[in-house]
């Protein structure tokens, strides 16, 4: 079997015609780039592979950075991704690609070198969105979490026991950082412009539940609030943050967790279909040009890719998750070797650990208009929630029940209706369907301001 359980193409299928002694250039030496290169070797490609990476480090795993590395349970140096013993490639690390000439089939690097290619894989991913005011971002004490070096620097600063940490943004990275701070016994304030944490990814009800979870663990969560400015002392060290609610916070550390920016600037002038959301590609991972035509010689994979998923009416998806990067890179390798014979149809999936809770999701909950708990108990912090769009199941979220998710993934693939009908002993009766824009699973907690005194207990039982 081949990628994602589908049958591997026959070696006789050579529609795209990558020469056996050809040269594949992979721009982006991280998860997608490494797996794309390894998939080429696994399928018998014996030609030259060159991996180009802006960072000086060999490929490493990013998910542990905002979890175990920040908590000091794992060294940043131990996050390297394993490689096949027989893997052979040329590495150009610490050097960014600055331009692509599709007609000449060349990539120009920042050091002036020009690499010719037979096939190109674009896997440049994304970078942390910076704090918009450069002079404030330069203050000692302002950090992002995206790279190994980011995590190493922030972990070292947290180990000095700062008085208060400010986390700007309550998405997954920000929420995980806040969780680590509370685990370390540090005071932390989380500021989020939306009505609840994670609401953009998981909708209102689950986001409200995540907010209650944070407050029960002693997080000073400020929703519907933004940071107006970061202020330093006379020698350039962060000391204060001004919030839109009028508060001035004394903080020693600020973690900027405002999402990601796709690394697409180097593709300007390539005539590919590129914008701030990423690089458009087809289901075979072939880059699409500005006229809407796929380029057989330029492939795309990972966080930078936008592709049409057949389960979602061909709407372009951009997925910044580990599993998608691996699967997409391996489909791209098949396309390089055999042409457009294998589609990328894997369901988006992600996981997170925060505040003692395991969160796992499949599908596209962010696009749902309805939400329902369909298994387990919110009160016991172990449940599955289903997400529907126009009467169809499109996503599922498991909290402390990761093994239950496979069945829902199958239902999503089979285009099951919403709410899903399943014979499950622990299903609520009746199932309550909510609009994703509404708050509340159970009794609502305040969505803004400081946590109530009874929510300050760091050791409170995790509960959604």
From TrEMBL:
The keyword Oxidoreductase applies. It comes from the Bacteria. The keyword Flavoprotein applies. Keywords: FAD, Flavoprotein, Oxidoreductase. Residues 23-329 form the FAD/NAD(P)-binding domain. Residues 449-458 have a biased composition (Basic and acidic residues). Residues 350-420 form the Reductase C-terminal domain. InterPro entries: FAD-oxidoreductase/Apoptosis, FAD/NAD-bd_sf, FAD/NAD-binding_dom, FAD/NAD-linked_Rdtase_dimer_sf, Reductase_C. Its cofactor is FAD. Residues 433-464 are annotated as: Disordered. SUPFAM superfamilies: FAD/NAD(P)-binding domain, FAD/NAD-linked reductases, dimerisation (C-terminal) domain. PANTHER family: APOPTOSIS-INDUCING FACTOR 1, RIESKE DOMAIN-CONTAINING PROTEIN-RELATED. This is FAD-dependent oxidoreductase.
């Amino acid at each position: 079997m081949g990628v994602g359980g589908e049958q591997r193409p026959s070696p006789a299928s050579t529609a795209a015609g990558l020469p056996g002694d050809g040269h594949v250039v992979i721009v982006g030496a991280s998860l997608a780039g490494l797996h794309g290169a390894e998939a080429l070797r696994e399928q018998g490609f014996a030609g030259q592979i060159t991996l180009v990476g802006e960072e000086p480090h060999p490929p490493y795993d990013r998910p542990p950075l905002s979890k175990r590395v920040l908590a000091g349970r794992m060294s940043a140096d131990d996050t390297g991704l394993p490689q096949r013993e027989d893997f052979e490639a040329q590495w150009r690390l610490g050097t960014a690609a600055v331009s692509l000439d599709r007609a000449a089939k060349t990539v120009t690097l920042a050091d002036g070198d020009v690499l010719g290619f037979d096939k190109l894989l674009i896997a440049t991913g994304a970078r942390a969105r910076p704090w918009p005011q450069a002079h404030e971002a330069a203050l000692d004490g302002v950090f992002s979490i995206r790279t190994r070096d980011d995590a190493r620097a922030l972990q070292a600063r947290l180990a000095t026991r700062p008085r208060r940490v400010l986390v700007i943004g309550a998405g997954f990275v920000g929420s995980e950082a806040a969780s680590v701070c509370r685990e370390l016994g540090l005071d932390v304030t989380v500021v989020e412009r939306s009505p609840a944490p994670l609401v953009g990814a998981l909708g209102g009800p689950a986001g409200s539940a995540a907010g209650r979870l944070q407050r029960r663990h002693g997080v000073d969560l400020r929703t519907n609030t933004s940071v107006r400015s970061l202020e330093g002392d006379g020698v350039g060290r962060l000391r204060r943050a001004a919030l839109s609610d009028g508060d001035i916070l004394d903080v020693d550390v600020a973690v900027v967790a405002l999402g990601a920016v796709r690394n697409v600037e180097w593709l300007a002038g390539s005539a590919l279909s590129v914008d701030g959301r990423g690089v458009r590609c087809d289901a075979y991972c072939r880059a699409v040009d500005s006229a809407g035509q796929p380029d057989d010689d330029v492939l795309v994979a990972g966080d930078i890719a936008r592709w049409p998923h057949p389960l979602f009416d061909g709407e372009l998806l951009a997925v910044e998750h580990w599993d998608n990067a691996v699967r997409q890179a391996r489909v791209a390798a098949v396309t390089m070797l055999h042409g457009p014979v294998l589609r990328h149809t894997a369901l988006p999936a992600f996981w997170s650990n925060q505040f003692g809770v395991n969160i796992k999701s499949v599908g596209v909950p962010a696009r749902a208009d309805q939400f329902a708990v369909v298994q387990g108990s919110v009160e016991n912090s172990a449940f599955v929630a289903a997400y529907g769009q126009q009467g169809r199941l499109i996503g599922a979220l498991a909290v402390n029940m990761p093994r239950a998710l496979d069945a829902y993934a199958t239902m999503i693939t089979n285009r099951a209706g919403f709410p899903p009908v399943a014979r499950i002993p622990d299903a609520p009766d009746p199932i309550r369907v909510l609009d994703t824009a509404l708050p509340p699973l159970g009794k609502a907690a305040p969505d803004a301001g400081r946590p109530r005194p009874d929510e300050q207990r760091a050791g409170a039982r995790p509960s959604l």
